[in-house]
Amino acid sequence: MEAGDLESMPAGRAVLRSAKCPPVVLETMPWYTGPFAAEVAAAKIRAGQDPTVARNDEDPEPDDTSSLLPRPPKAAVEYPALETAS
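Predicted structure:
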C-alpha cells in the first residue's frame, strides 16, 4: 500500500503490521457500539470523565454495506449521573 491508499481508507479502518506477518486491514469498532459499552461508560465515570459520545462526521455509517464486521447489536446504555465536586 502506498501512503495515498492509507489516507483514502474510510473511517473505521486500520492497518495492522506485525513482524513476519503480512499487513492486515481491520475494521475498528467504537467502544460505544460494542458489547462492553456499559462497562466502559461506568469506568469513564469512575475516572471522572463524561461518557457521553457525540457523533462525528468521520464516524462510519451504521448501515454501511461495505462493513467487514457483523452489525453489532444495539442496546440502550444507561449512563449514571457524573458526580461533580462542588
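Summary: The first strand starts at residue 13 and ends at 18.
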